[in-house]
Amino acid sequence: MTNETSLPAKQRIWELDALRGLCILCMVAIHAFWDLSAFGGFAFDLPGWFLFCRQYGHILFILLSGLCATLASRSFQRGVYVFGAALVISYVTFFMVQVLNFPDDMLIWFGILHMLGVCMMLFPLFKRLPVWALAVLGVSFVALGVWFESFCIPVNFLFPLGLRAQGFYCGGDYFPLLPGFGWFLLGAVIGRTAYRKKQSLLPRVNAANPVIRFFSFCGRHSLLIYMLHQPVLTIGTILIFG
């Protein structure tokens, strides 16, 4: 959930920035509804498309991250940076739940940033594989992750892989490596095929359009938005409606 492309500003692929920006803003909207429900006492009759995005929208973001990893350099270093940011979020949410008595849903043990950070660190081990091998591994990891959801194991420490013990609670933001790394590799397949020239597929679109520029700006700063939006939303909702 970070600016993973290392291309100069004039060579940036605008549709990837804009799509990442759209994804991060949809996530902010989803968390805003959750805060209004949990802390503001509001009840919402959410439309089907919104529920679909809440359930499966993260897949698009992971695919984008894997795609952008094929355009970027220093994937491992970027992964360390993202995972470090994820650890900060874990410590903050642990303090909020254990000390300030916030709901357990706020706790994040292994969220989307943890997963993406590890995926970026692992990707250099896979990036030289042929496209067909990345596709086979991606599909296999997704299938393995789905299978892991069907049973429990007697220990808790494998939850980052998607293996959980009976009754183990991972918080409201839980995205294990399986199937997450599978979606990441499938995104890399798209990057290695559709974007092998590292150029926009929509060069005739006016990227200077204010709407596109706004979404692109959000996409380029998606990690900062992710880090800041939840405390701002939660504190704001409590101060206004609490």
TrEMBL record:
Molecular function, one GO term: heparan-alpha-glucosaminide N-acetyltransferase activity
Alphabetical keyword list: Acyltransferase, Membrane, Transferase, Transmembrane, Transmembrane helix
Keyword Transferase (UniProt): yes
The enzyme's E.C. designation: 2.3.1.78
Domain spans labelled Heparan-alpha-glucosaminide N-acetyltransferase catalytic: 12-231
InterPro entries for this protein: HGSNAT_cat
Transmembrane parts of this sequence: 21-44, 56-73, 80-100, 106-126, 133-157, 177-195, 223-241
Name used for this protein in its record: Heparan-alpha-glucosaminide N-acetyltransferase
Organism listed in the record: Faecousia intestinalis
